[in-house]
Amino acid sequence: MMQVLRPKYAPIVVSCMADKFFKAEAIWEFHSLMRIVSGEMKIVLAENTHVFGMGDTFLVPRNRLSTVIKYPKDGLPFKCILITFRPEQLKDYYAKQKSSAKLKSWQKVKSYDKNPLLESFVTSLMPYFDMQQDLPEELVKLKLEEALTILRAIDESIDGLLSDFSDPGKIDIATYMEKNFMFNLTLENFSLLTGRSISTFNRDFRKSFNTPPQKWLMQKRLELAHYLLFEKKIKPADVYVEVGFENFSHFSYSFKKYFGYSPKRSTEGKTIKTTPAIENDLIQ
Asked: Do residues 41 and 68 share a domain?
């Protein structure tokens, strides 16, 4: 089930260890800057998938829905540096800065090439892997300001994102759901992210799609799974993660009920079945 990525500790975390496969669907609550130290991370978004490995640095904008997969590689555990920029910290920082950038809450994950300023900053954080406690508060503040100053030096568009403190309002439900149906959110989370109460969300959803949300979500996820399996030739064990199922057994059962054959079976040329009887059986 979807979780909110809300770090429990200091805004700078220098471990994020994982010595085995880890997968979670999440909402990135804050703008988050990451450096992969070892292992790999896959971030599955509505529009594309990113795979980051050792030495990669990237920024994920706040309020993004994604499937996050972390796993070891080349005999090394997954390890990263995570820096979260929270609104109160950003407001304090930008109150002392001059910025002429237009506000623009772009939603793309941004990857950064190696840069001397960025590399020097990451190197300065590496010794903190050996610490057994959180970083001192004053040091955290200094490092956050250093990170922001470096981002502004290497990315002229970053002010437009980080200095935008507005909250998302009510958005078009049909467009949003078509882009994000593969994420395993509760209906309460979908309603929140589209700027609605749960009752308004259900009413607007039925107006847009003429069907209950649970029924529509199941159909869309299974049809996407069919496409990934038999057009893109992705393995079933990878597909269920990308289309919003919590485990493979539930995915396999639902897929067979919907299409009449197992996701492991080679089915080139088969057509997608969407009979009401099958749909009703799936959502019971």
From this structure: yes
